[in-house]
Amino acid sequence: MQSCRVLAEKQELLQTIPGVGAQTASQVIAELGETGRFDSARQAAAYAGLTPTHYRSGSSIRRKPRLSKVGSSRLRKALYFPALAALQYNDAIRALGDRLANRGKAKMVIVGAAMRKLLHICYGVLKNGTPFDASLHPGT
Fold it and tell me: How far apart are alpha carbons 132 and 125 in whole angstroms?
């Protein structure tokens, strides 16, 4: 059962990230699959539908940017509540949320950015095979 051991190691690695628990780790592993599928964390975020989409129609109609939501809805759902927890307990994501709040961004924009940042961190942890290191993600 080599594959079970590999999956258990990946789950343990993801659980070192503040805000990510056992259920979230399992869902991220299931949805992302092998990290070799994506060349970068940006591609993984695009796969999850966590990239901003800008709406423009001519020169007069502009709407606020939104999440593209083209991608894995299960992965977005799996990251929503962990992102809320990470905004409180993960220094890197809390700093991101504070910066966006100081710029006057809406609460859901901050949550979407936190979900994307959390997925970037998950991708990096899985790709490198190392536990989360807070020094790589400075909080200030």
Answer: 6
Residue-wise pLDDT tens digits, 7-51: 999 999 999 999 999 999 999 999 998 888 999 999 999 999 998
How far apart are alpha carbons 123 and 23 in whole angstroms? 16
- Is residue 99 very low, low, confident or very high in pLDDT (cuts 50, 70, 90)? very high
Residues near 11 by beta carbon (within 8 Å), at least 6 away in sequence: 22, 25, 26, 29
Q: For residues 128-138, give the mean pLDDT.
A: 86
Residue 73: partners with Cβ closer than 8 Å, 6 or more residues away: 49
| Distance in angstroms between the alpha carbons of the first and the last residue of the chain | 43
Domain assignments of the chain as residue spans, ordered by start: 2-132
Tell me which residue of 136, 138, 122 sits closest to 16, measured CA to CA.
122
Give the amino acid at 29: I
